[in-house]
């Protein structure tokens, strides 16, 4: 027996984001396409029609009706950059930072990424799994139906594989679509820092042992490197990512976050799927990303949380013909938020995007940053039935309400992902 189709009706607006099944660049990002009077038909895991409501009701009298109760229906959001597998938060660092203590000094006092590495290495799998599960559920409650999750607090072959296994377990037990990324090149671990040759030894460990083992395990779709002055150099990043690509992994980079170091240019040279952060990207870097077709993933929550006044030049990136995506960068040190709509708010207020651009940056272009734009991010026939129903009625309200949860329900592949306000939908 086949399941009866789902028919989503009575939405104030359906924000389709419909258009080419690829990253949207430049002016293509202007219109998220909000339509009234249309319904959405879902067959199994796929959207099969988006058209006039009366017509669909007449054609599909036996469909299970989902009453959107004059809410706003959007594609489920795609959070394409998170570090969601960690143990404890690092709240003690916030006061230090506010008092003007530098990142280096915080690290010297035992804080920073190394604190999360120490913590993860001493935490049991079940504990890390339980924490991550609640955190990903919080992301789902904020309207996210697809999430990228990076490793990178293990920094040893064993602890990185352990992290990737936890991500696999989450993807098997949560309804969200989870895309795993190997970030063994997040930092040089402390045990390699105590001698001159340590850096070189860790890069060789990454290239010769960790990347082949990760590729063989099939636990990651992408490899990522923190390419930044003081972390991994451009030459080291090139070596690591070239090995990753040869092993069959997709490529992403943390690039030009705090200082311009050639990260964006390297991302373009390697035709990376995305270059992320980019608060310090140069004009040359912008041009390179545009001609390479690498998605520029911007993380305004991080700069806000760190108290930085400088944000990525989103308008210049769009004007140069780049595809801009927005993501939370959810992590314990520099962006402890799961509030995806807040990132849209910051996209408008800090990055000067329009509401439509911010929404496309969180849907179609987020999907493109994960290589999923052919199937994810649009309410259009043939796309995965990843939908989000909001207790809002106008598309401009999504980035307008500042914090707080207004996601009533969401679906991934046509199945419930998150249900908050059952009264709003007819799923009760
Ligand atoms: Zn990051």
What labels would you give this structure?
single chain; 428 residues; alpha/beta; Urease, subunit C, domain 1; TIM Barrel; 2 domains; six-stranded mixed sheet; 20% strand; globular; binds zinc ion
Question: What does this entry look like structurally?
Answer:
- The protein is of the alpha/beta class and 428 residues long.
- It has two domains: 6-76 and 375-419, Roll (Urease, subunit C, domain 1), CATH 2.30.40; 78-368, Metal-dependent hydrolases (TIM Barrel, Alpha-Beta Barrel), CATH 3.20.20.
- It is 35% helix and 20% strand.
- It is built from 15 helices and 18 strands.
- The protein has helices at 53-59, 92-98, 103-108, 113-121, 125-141, 157-173, 198-217, 234-246, 263-269, 283-292, 300-306, 314-319, 340-349, 355-362, 364-368, and strands at residues 6-9, 13-15, 34-35, 38-43, 46-52, 64-67, 72-75, 77-79, 144-150, 177-185, 222-227, 250-255, 274-277, 295-298, 324-326, 387-390, 407-412, 415-419.
- The strands form three sheets. The protein has an eight-stranded parallel β-sheet. The chain has a six-stranded mixed β-sheet with strand order 3-2-7-16-17-18, with helices on one face. It has a four-stranded mixed β-sheet with strand order 5-4-1-6.
- It is globular.
- The model has no long low-confidence stretch (mean pLDDT 95).
- The structure holds zinc ion (ZN).
- The site of zinc ion (ZN) has 4 residues, from loops.
- Residues 81, 83, 254, 329 line the site of zinc ion.
